[in-house]
Write a structure and sequence with these properties.
The complex is a heterodimer. By secondary structure, chain A is of the alpha+beta class. Chain A is built from six helices and ten strands; from the N terminus they run βαββαββαββααβαββ. Chain A has a single domain, classed as Alpha-Beta Plaits. Chain A has helices spanning 18-26, 78-82, 108-112, 151-154, 161-165, 182-189, and strands at residues 4-9, 37-41, 65-69, 88-90, 96-98, 119-120, 144-145, 171-175, 192-193, 205-208. In chain B, α6 packs across α15 (431-443). Classes of the chains: A alpha+beta, B alpha/beta.
Chain lengths: 245, 831
């Protein structure tokens, strides 16, 4: 079996938002919504610390971390349990997905999700260009949506957009059922946590804190263990300098 | 992380999660609370087929972050849909940042310029310069008319004042061939081009010692940074600005055990990753570097082999002339200008050759042929006696033990280095820091090795365009430094500037310091034309507006100065929107109208091929196919392996040229000089706060300021202020405040930030004037420059803050209407 999961090394994460932007572009997320948010563990405003500024160069208590947060793809997903029309479901490969046809917009799932990972299309999506971005179809107004681990890319043996976009190599996507996958090895080797584990949601997303890992050491777009791909598109890159357009 | 912090983390993490709605609120653009209709759509939720309809093309991002990242562009239905980092020839350099991946919203920005336009109250001979600015109205004209106006005015100005009175202005807005092509026309016309008075401070000081540097000096290519054992990031938030695309390189070094030291008055993202953070008082950087020199000498942890082989540490300095003793002073051979040391075993004077180990004494006073001398290193040691870590700690508000730790990590842990940013040079006398850290790294032997670091961005590669920009028969251009342009505009000194054609720049009316002054200066110009793709404040200030193509709408070549070792290609993803044109074709038609009809080929690709033919490191057709080609040898990635380009071929610790700054300070050895950061500065009482303008991750200079994707996260300019400074002034978090000094004012929302050093305030650089509810951060800055390395001192500014006047109109951000960076984009069919 395959059980897709994500390891995010918070020691490597620099809070740059490249993954947040790439997610929104690839998944045609409305400009007033965000599936993948980079929270600051620190002060009230983004990128500010908590604590107090040191005096005489010492004894300050400032601290700040960044926490990229999207759907955790829980094994025991509260959103799946509360959906009255079974629009939200856990796939056999570990991805929690929404059938937008079935979703009737009741938003029980949004209340149930302890990670605040879901957004609701009150209005028609706002995008630039207006025809939308990325490589997915537009979702209609009135449905709930969230991170899909870029299931449309995974289907083509491509890593999720956020993972490819990360300049800090902080995101590692892979098969948690495969003991040899980098994600599995890091979960074994490093101190990792699942957020709000006391709620027993058992997320497929793991965060490394403490010792830094080597991160995602591959440079390609491809899912680990699959054929090398030059672009986030199974058709590859035009090598005619655009003449064939 | 300590145990206590870990214990607390569960609570704060939870509160972070629960507060996520607040973060979402910040993203909100006025969401409605009513549940909309729930009509069902029959579309299959499963996604299929879009990849098959999508073509992927190569291009490159190249604003002046120095990233120059090769990118892939996904094009479908004639529209750009997605941007991703392109695989690089050398795979270690595949990268991109949030900005590169937000070009979709730049291409389709509501602020794109659509048609050529002329200011309604401008006409040749009656320019009405007072009509320029935010309220100016424009009328659409044809390309032919617009360029004819420009050409006619250029010719008139040339005949009335001389060719140099036409200013061919470019900024750092793009790193394609635009500037090269523009330079060819400027050279043929005989106009004026600008040289830089920005970021040229620290590098010039470093150059006095090593012979290298104007902008930041060369440093090893970033793939080598993993081999550094100590990285001292000085005045840079490199994980947020300039270097973030190479963040993995620094992180890999840390993962391998390197120590990260951050010297910064602000607790930044980079500081949050540091093993040691030195929260220095602004303006005390040279003091700190001198204290580190003091400590390395006191502890004896200097690299004596390196000092003997590659520096003038052992070179004798004459007491009578304060110049280095030369062999000609001893043996009578008048041409022998080699410097001299005392051989440690024989006690005899011996010449020091470039890059040749000489077993000379490093310290001491010696009388040679009746001449009293001291070694350069002894003079340095004596000089830094006044800068002990303890003394400097009290001046710079640091802990002396931390200063020593940083110095000893650098000196004793193997190859490493210092990565200063341009911020240090944004203080008036930043070049002295360049001089000082060049010497410090010489003491620790950190030059010319794998793992040594000297700047916060690597050297990268530059395309060799040969003589392309100075064609046969061209009279060539005049050059004025940016800080010299005001006198030319205002007093005609050394010659008047009466016409300006600008491109790839938002400097003149938005980015240059003392903005209002530039608006006044520009009133001396009869014709001001700007080519751009967005309606920047500088474009709005022009008389003639020329809508240019976005980078992705044109074929081009980009090199990677200051970044990575590849040359990249840009494929045209689609035609320029509306009536916009590739800058190349604008310039070529202007050249035609000026009578230079043979200067440019009709076919831009053929022109690019011609330019590229000057560089034998790559083939243009291969570049078009592959997207990017590594052109620099791996060995060239390690810098400072050759003899230093100084008189002695060595790093010259003692500067016998005795440069003198404007306040009389002699810089034979580094001496801290401060302008407005000095606590006893004349303005200190009236304006107690130091004002800086940090480079953020949300913009590169003023680019992306109008980008809808970026504004989603960074909607509004803010003043970062320590809560204690705010509370002293009755300012709450989120209040609108007036930041002011004797030059001007700006109104922004205050944002409490515990990481700001008390006494220091910040508004991120690059916001457009239109984005403020009132004023601009550049209304606070001044144009005073030093003598030795004239550079605008953007951070050497004093100001104060008070609550904003009650009648200030903040509806731009406080009214519920959608924001203007979203509105106005026409629906499909109009493009």
């Amino acid at each position: 079996m395959t059980d897709y999961g994500m390891v995010i090394d918070l020691e490597r994460c620099i809070g740059c938002n490249a993954c947040a932007v790439s997610c929104s572009q690839e998944n045609n997320v409305s400009l007033d919504k965000q599936w993948n948010r980079i929270l600051t563990e620190g002060g009230d405003a983004m990128d500010t610390p908590e604590g107090s500024y040191p005096e005489n160069g010492r004894d300050g208590t400032l601290s700040m971390n960044h926490l990229p947060l999207a759907c955790q793809h829980c094994d025991n997903a509260p959103c799946v349990k509360v959906c009255p029309v079974n629009a939200t479901y856990k796939r056999d490969d570990g991805i929690v997905e929404i059938d937008y046809d079935k979703c009737m917009g009741c938003r029980y799932c949004m209340s149930a999700c302890p990670y605040n990972a879901r957004v609701f299309n009150f209005d028609d999506p706002k995008t630039l260009p207006t025809d939308g971005t990325g490589n997915v179809e537009e979702r209609k107004q009135g449905v709930v949506e969230k991170c899909t681990f870029c299931s449309h890319r995974v289907k083509e043996d491509l890593d999720p957009a956020c993972t490819v976009a990360c300049p800090a190599d902080a995101r590692i996507f892979g098969d948690l059922d495969d003991e040899e996958s980098t994600a599995s090895r890091y979960i074994e080797k490093y101190e990792t946590e699942q957020l709000l584990d006391e709620l027993e949601t058992d997320p497929n997303t793991y965060y490394i804190r403490g010792e830094m890992s080597p991160g995602r050491t591959r440079s390609g777009n491809e899912l680990e263990g699959t054929e090398k791909k030059a672009a986030g598109n199974p058709n590859g890159v035009a090598t005619d300098g655009g003449d064939g357009q | 992380m300590t145990m206590s912090e870990q214990d607390g983390a569960g609570v704060s993490r939870r509160s972070v999660l629960l507060s996520a709605g607040a973060a979402a609120g910040m993203l909100g653009l006025g969401g409605h609370s009513a549940l909309q209709s729930l009509t069902r759509d029959e579309t299959d939720a499963a996604v299929e087929g879009l990849f098959d309809e999508t073509q992927v093309l190569n291009t490159a991002c190249a604003p002046n972050c120095r990233g120059k990242c090769p990118l892939n562009v996904h094009v479908r239905d004639g529209q750009i849909k997605f941007v991703e980092p392109q695989m690089t020839d050398d795979e270690r350099y595949r990268r991109g940042c949030l900005l590169g991946q937000s070009h979709v919203q730049r291409v389709y920005s509501p602020k794109r310029l659509k048609y050529p336009m002329v200011r309604s109250d401008w006409e040749p001979g009656a320019p009405n310069p007072g009509g320029r600015g935010e309220d100016a109205q424009f009328e659409q004209v044809s390309w032919d008319d617009a360029l004819q106006y420009v050409a006619d005015e250029m010719r008139r100005v040339r005949s009335e004042y001389g060719p140099e009175s036409v200013f061919f202005h470019t900024g750092s807005g793009d790193n394609g061939m635009g500037t090269t092509i523009f330079g060819r026309l400027a050279s043929m016309f005989g106009g004026t081009q600008q040289s830089w008075s920005i970021d040229s401070n620290v590098g010039v000081g470093f150059n006095r010692i090593t012979g290298h540097g104007f902008f930041l000096p060369p440093t090893n290519e970033s793939a080598d940074w993993v081999n550094a054992n100590t990285i001292i990031v000085w005045g840079s938030d490199l994980f947020k600005s300039q270097f973030q695309n190479d963040a993995s390189k620094v992180l890999d070094a840390l993962e391998s055990g390197a120590k990260l030291v951050v010297v910064d008055p602000v607790y930044t993202t980079t500081a949050s990753k540091a093993d040691l953070w030195l929260p220095i008082k602004p303006g005390k950087d040279t003091h700190l570097a001198l204290a580190m020199i003091h400590d390395v000498l006191a502890e004896g942890t200097y690299d004596d082999d390196f000092l003997r082989e590659r520096t003038t540490a052992g070179a004798l300095v004459r007491e009578d002339t304060d110049e280095m003793l030369r062999m000609r002073d001893l043996d009578g051979d008048a041409d022998d200008d080699r410097v001299v040391g005392i051989h440690a075993e024989t006690g005899e004077p011996v010449p020091l050759e470039p890059d040749t180990y000489a077993a000379v004494e490093l310290f001491g006073e010696y009388e040679v042929d009746g001449i009293r001398t001291t070694t350069g290193l002894s003079l340095l040691e004596e000089h830094v006696a006044d800068y002990s870590p303890e003394t400097v700690a009290s001046v710079a508000d640091l802990d002396p033990a931390d200063i020593k730790t940083a110095a000893q990590w650098l000196a004793t842990r193997g190859p490493g280095g210092i990565a200063p940013s341009y911020a240090l040079g944004r203080y008036k006398y930043g070049h002295v820091f360049g001089q000082t850290y060049a010497i410090l790294l010489a003491l620790t032997g950190d030059y010319g090795k794998s793992g040594t670091i000297h700047a916060q961005h690597p050297s990268g590669t530059t395309l060799n365009s040969g003589e392309y920009s100075s064609p046969d028969g061209a009279p060539g251009t005049q050059s004025l430094s940016m800080h010299e342009i005001p006198a030319a505009l205002e007093d005609g000194d050394p010659f008047p500037i009466k016409a300006i054609y600008g491109m790839e720049s938002n400097m003149l009316a938005n980015q240059f310091p003392n903005r209002q002054r530039w608006h006044d200066l520009l009133e001396n110009v009869d014709m001001f034309a700007m080519a751009d793709f967005h309606r920047t404040p500088t474009v709005q200030h022009a008389d003639i507006i020329l809508p240019a193509a976005h980078w992705f709408e044109r074929e081009d070549i980009t090199d990677a100065w200051g970044s990575h070792p590849h040359i990249s290609h840009r494929t045209k993803a689609h035609e320029p929107l509306w009536d916009a044109r590739d800058d190349y074709h604008i310039i070529a038609e202007l050249a035609d109208k000026l009578g230079y009809d043979e200067l440019f080929l009709d076919d831009k690709r053929a022109e690019l091929r011609k330019i590229a033919s000057n560089d034998d490191r790559f083939d243009f057709d291969e570049l078009r196919r592959k997207g990017n080609v590594r052109v620099e040898d791996e060995e060239a990635g390690i810098k400072y392996t050759d003899p230093f380009p100084t008189d002695t071929g060595r790093i010259e610790l003692y500067d016998e040229d005795h440069p003198v700054e404007d306040d009389g300070t002699v810089l034979d050895l580094p001496r801290p000089i401060e302008d407005r950061t000095a606590t006893d500065h004349d303005l200190a009482d009236e304006y107690p706060l130091l004002f800086m303008q940090k480079h953020s991750k949300w913009r590169i200079h003023s680019q992306w300021a109008d980008n809808a994707m970026i504004r989603k996260f960074n909607a509004e300019p803010t003043l970062d202020i320590h809560p204690s400074d705010a509370q002293d002034r009755d300012i709450d978090d989120g209040d609108y405040v007036r930041v002011y000094n004797d030059r001007g004012e700006v109104v922004v929302r205050a944002s409490y930030n515990e990481g700001m050093r008390p006494g220091l305030i910040n508004i991120d650089q690059g916001w457009w004037t239109d984005d403020y509810v009132h004023g601009s951060h550049q209304d606070l800055t001044h144009m005073e420059v030093n003598d030795l390395a004239p550079t605008f001192a953007f951070y050497d500014v004093r100001a104060d803050v008070e609550p904003a006047p009650r009648d200030i109109d903040t509806s731009k951000y406080t009214a519920p209407e959608p924001s203007d960076w979203l509105e106005g984009y026409p629906n499909e069919g109009d493009n």
